[in-house]
Amino acid sequence: MKETIIEMEKYAKEYNVPIIEKDSIKFIMKYIKLNNVKSILEIGTAIGYSGILMTSANEGVELTTIERDEKRYMEAVKNVKKCGLEHQIEVVFQDALDVNLIGRSYDMIFIDAAKGQYIKFFEKFSHYLKPNGVIITDNIKFHGLVGNRNADMSKNLNSLVSKIEDYIEFLKTNKEFTTKFYDIGDGLSISYRNNDEKR
């Protein structure tokens, strides 16, 4: 598996596929182990890098991961097979906002897909969270641009940063969840449902 991980890191660099920063995935893997997370929903598979590492963090982890880009989906399926994890990881080829997961629930939901859709993802998938489950979101700092915009930024980039800032505000003012923010990697947030047991 180690070789496949190294291959994936090279592939991501070569083909400009964004994968999670090492500090961030280490933090999440530690969280999975310490909290005995067994079921994970990942929004945004890319090539399967974070999903494979999260699944390997604890014994018996089962992961559902959603990807809408066909090339990345195919690459992820290939990598999951290479690691022998096809019985633990289900890769779904669909737009996350169209996915129906009725009857399923998860200990952890990891949001790492289209940044402009973060609020929609959170609102949709929070209903699939088990009691005492958490929602973790990556790229909260977005390369240091969040809260630190400059005049040279393109219109698209400006709009994207605005949407992430809106998401942070949405998390801070959410009555149902309490969110902790971590200055790790490209910025992480962990959201806990308020009526769950206090940790």
Low-confidence stretches: none
Strand order of the largest sheet: 3-2-1-4-5-7-6
Total count of domains: 1
Mean pLDDT: 93
Beta strands, count: 7
CATH class, named Alpha Beta
Quote the beta fraction.
15-25%
Structural class by helix and strand composition:
alpha/beta
For the record, the CATH architecture stands as 3-Layer(aba) Sandwich
Q: Main beta sheet: strand number and arrangement?
A: 7 strands, mixed
CATH topology: Rossmann fold
Individual helix count: 6
Reading the helices and strands in chain order gives: HHEHEHEEHEHEE
**Shape descriptor:** globular
Q: Name the CATH superfamily assignment.
A: Vaccinia Virus protein VP39
Helix content: 25-40%
Radius of gyration: 16 Å
Q: Report, as a whole number of angstroms, the end-to-end distance.
A: 34 Å
Secondary structure blueprint with pairings:
Layout (H helix, E strand, L loop, with lengths): L1 H13 L7 H13 L4 E5 L5 H7 L6 E6 L2 H13 L6 E5 L12 E6 L6 H8 L3 E10 L16 H18 L4 E6 L5 E6 L6
Parallel strand pairs: 1-2, 1-4, 2-3, 4-5
Antiparallel strand pairs: 5-7, 6-7
Q: What's the gist of this structure?
A:
This protein is an alpha/beta fold and 199 residues long. The protein has helices at 2-14, 22-34, 49-55, 70-82, 118-125, 155-172; strands at residues 39-43, 62-67, 89-93, 106-111, 129-138, 177-182, 188-193. Helices cover 36% and strands 22% of the residues.
Describe it for me?
With 199 residues, this protein is an alpha/beta fold. The protein is 36% helix and 22% strand. The protein has helices spanning 2-14, 22-34, 49-55, 70-82, 118-125, 155-172; strands at residues 39-43, 62-67, 89-93, 106-111, 129-138, 177-182, 188-193. Strand 4, helix 5 (118-125) and strand 5 form a beta-alpha-beta unit.
